[in-house]
Design a protein that fits this description.
By secondary structure, the chain is of the alpha+beta class. About 15% of the residues lie in helices and about 30% in strands. It has one domain (about 1-65). The chain is built from 1 helix and 4 strands, in the order βββαβ. It has a 4-stranded mixed beta sheet, with helices on one face. The protein binds zinc ion.
Length: about 70
């Protein structure tokens, strides 16, 4: 299980990115919200989408669930 955070800052295209905390992500902003612990980034993204429909995986630390 890894800890995930949700960025409160919008990306240029309007997405809100979900980040994994295990390695410092260069794209993780200071204004992020802890999401909790999940088995994988897809689960974390599902959780984030409950509150923010524009949630997306971070291109840098969660590329497996990043959609363009
Ligand atoms: Zn990231």
């Amino acid at each position: 299980m890894a800890k995930y955070s949700f960025s409160l800052g919008k990306q240029a295209n309007g997405d809100y990115w979900v980040h994994v905390d295990k390695s410092p992500c260069p794209a993780l902003p200071n204004n992020s919200l802890p999401l909790g612990r999940f088995e994988n980034s897809r689960r974390a993204l599902q959780e984030a989408k409950k509150t923010q429909s524009a949630a997306n995986g971070c291109k840098h630390c969660c590329p497996e669930c990043h959609t363009k």
